[in-house]
Automatic annotation (TrEMBL):
Superkingdom as given in the UniProt entry: Bacteria
Name of the protein in question: Helix-turn-helix transcriptional regulator
Organism: Actinomadura chokoriensis
HTH cro/C1-type domain mapped to chain residues: 20-72
Pfam families per record: DUF5753 (PF19054), HTH_31 (PF13560)
InterPro entries given in the database record: Cro/C1-type_HTH (IPR001387), DUF5753 (IPR043917), Lambda_DNA-bd_dom_sf (IPR010982)
SUPFAM superfamilies linked to this entry: lambda repressor-like DNA-binding domains
Length: 274
């Protein structure tokens, strides 16, 4: 986990930062003074205290030795490592997932990949395993599979998925995995609460090409929109902005094939994988 322009939201990282500030202030030290004492740069101290960088084990040990904390910072560092899979989640995503389980309706447009709620275990592993250590990848796989239960539980929301054809054709894994994934999409369309339609390549330019997004609707709360760009998540609650996304979703669905035609296209692409 490297330096970020925005703070990590992971509680363990934020707690480390808060404790470092508290101990430094108690010792009446500036960031520069602490950095010079421990042999680091003021910029490094600043990044740690703002939760934009993650401590190394050595840095944690040095803090414990200097402040005589009886191992506090080493314990906090271990907590960061034990929960590091949470730290790589985009800002805003944790809050989104909390709301996702409460939604009565879900409208999703996905441009480049099969949406996470529709991914098979093998497909998930191919996606989240990219540049992740095995332990972190497995935790992310397990969490995504658990999250998918929102679609199959007793009181599951009504879910509309609109996917660009490119998401079916992007070979992010071996042909066998892609074929399994597309077969899974067909199986999910059999569920009464799920609708999947595809925007074909023949649509050329349409409004969905500007990016993926999700609209959550609730029985007793206003709709919200979630989207990601360059690894940064954004949960939108402004009513006017949310309404504009609803209009966009209805518009791009006009470019999509009907459900049965979409099933035919999914099956056709699946057969191309052998």
């Amino acid at each position: 986990m490297g330096t970020r322009s925005e703070p990590y939201e992971a509680p363990a990282i934020q707690t480390f930062a808060t404790e470092l500030v508290a101990w430094r202030m108690e010792a009446d030290l500036t960031q520069t003074a602490l950095a010079e004492t421990l042999g680091y740069t003021p910029q490094w101290i600043s990044q740690i205290e703002s939760s934009k960088s993650v401590s190394s084990k050595t840095f944690a040990e040095n803090l414990d030795t200097f402040f005589k904390t009886n191992g506090l910072f080493q314990r906090l560092w271990k907590r960061i490592i034990d929960t590091r899979h949470q730290a790589i989640l985009p800002p805003g995503f944790t809050e989104y997932v909390e709301r996702e389980v409460e939604a009565s309706q879900v409208r999703i447009y996905q441009l480049t990949l099969v949406h996470g709620l529709l991914q098979t275990e093998s497909y998930i592993r191919a996606v989240v395993g990219h540049e992740q250590d095995p332990d972190t990848a497995e935790r992310l796989v397990a969490e995504r599979l658990k999250r998918q239960e929102v679609l199959t539980r007793k009181d599951a929301p009504t879910a509309w998925f609109t996917l660009d054809e490119a998401s079916l054709r992007r070979e992010i894994a071996d042909p066998e995995i892609m074929r399994e994934q597309l077969a899974h999409l067909l199986a999910m369309t059999e569920r009464p609460n799920i609708s999947i339609d595809i925007v074909p390549m023949s649509a050329k330019y349409y409004s969905g090409l500007t990016g993926s997004f999700t609209i959550l609707s609730f029985l007793d709360a206003p709709d919200v929109v979630y989207g990601e760009i360059a690894g940064q998540g954004m949960l939108i609650t402004d009513p006017r902005t949310v309404a504009s996304f609803a209009v966009r979703y209805n518009s791009l669905r006009g470019d999509a094939l009907r459900v049965e035609e979409s099933r035919t296209l999914i099956n056709s692409v699946m057969e191309e994988y052998g």
